[in-house]
Recover the amino acids of this structure.
């Protein structure tokens, strides 16, 4: 049985430090630090956090219908098995060095530098604003239902599956490895540079110079908007693109099939002339 703590408040330093097997209901945490640090088997329901670093080095934590205000920055670090449901997060740097993180119906409204060096993540119906550098160095991530506004997302991430997402993110997936994205919209320039084994299925892609310097890129039934120009420079790929491509420049090797192309550019900087086969269903202009 968990000890119930309800309808009260705490403030200052470490008020519930190293407290195991508790359930918090309608508790407010006023300014202070490390309120529930080094604790295990904690449940927080309809609580409000205005303190820094409340959940550090914790295990088996359930957070539901809570609010983390702008003052609760860096709230959950160095922890294991965190489950957060139907919660509003207004603070940056929310998660770091987490093993086993589950988020469902969570809104993060100022999510800069969030989810760094985390492993074993599962997200459902999550909305993120201001999420620059989110998921950097992340490992083993599964996402279904995701609305992201934030640049440099998934940098150096590995083993990620994303479904039904809208990513407004410049420089997404840089230096990533083993990423698969299904049925999503990706809007942001310089997508996927220096990635390895990036697979895009039924995706709509916007932004200049996408998917350059990529190794073993796969695209299946994707579309590119008119501003997605100068694609695939120095990439190895197998791509099936529906409709028109504004321009393709100096791909390294592989096979591209598209409806049509405004330009296919092989200039003096092409590294491997003739090693990428391009098939168009309509005639294109080649420079």
């Amino acid at each position: 049985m968990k000890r119930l703590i309800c309808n009260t408040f705490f403030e200052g330093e470490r008020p519930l430090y190293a407290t195991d097997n508790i359930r918090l209901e309608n508790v407010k945490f006023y300014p202070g630090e490390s309120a529930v640090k080094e604790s295990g088997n904690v449940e927080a329901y309809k609580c409000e956090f205005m303190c820094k670093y409340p959940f550090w080095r914790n295990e088996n934590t359930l957070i539901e219908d809570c609010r983390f205000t702008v003052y609760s920055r860096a709230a959950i670090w160095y922890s294991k098995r965190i489950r957060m449901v139907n919660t509003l997060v207004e603070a940056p740097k929310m998660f770091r060095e987490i093993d086993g993180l589950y988020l469902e119906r969570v809104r993060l409204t100022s999510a800069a530098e969030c989810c760094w060096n985390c492993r074993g993540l599962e997200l459902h119906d999550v909305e993120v604003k201001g999420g620059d550098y989110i998921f950097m160095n992340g490992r083993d991530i599964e996402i279904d239902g995701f609305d992201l506004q934030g640049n440099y997302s998934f940098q150096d991430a590995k083993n990620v599956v994303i479904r039904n997402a809208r990513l407004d993110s410049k420089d997404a997936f840089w230096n990533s490895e083993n990423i698969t994205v299904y049925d999503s919209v990706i809007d942001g320039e310089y997508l996927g540079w220096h990635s390895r084994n990036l697979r895009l299925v039924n995706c709509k892609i916007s932004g200049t110079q996408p998917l350059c310097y990529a190794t073993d890129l796969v695209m299946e039934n994707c579309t590119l908007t008119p501003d997605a120009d100068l694609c695939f420079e120095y990439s190895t790929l197998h791509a099936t693109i529906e409709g028109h491509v504004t321009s393709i420049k100096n791909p390294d090797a592989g096979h591209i099939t598209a409806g049509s192309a405004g330009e296919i550019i092989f200039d003096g900087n092409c590294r491997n002339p003739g090693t990428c086969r391009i098939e168009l269903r309509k005639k294109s202009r080649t420079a």
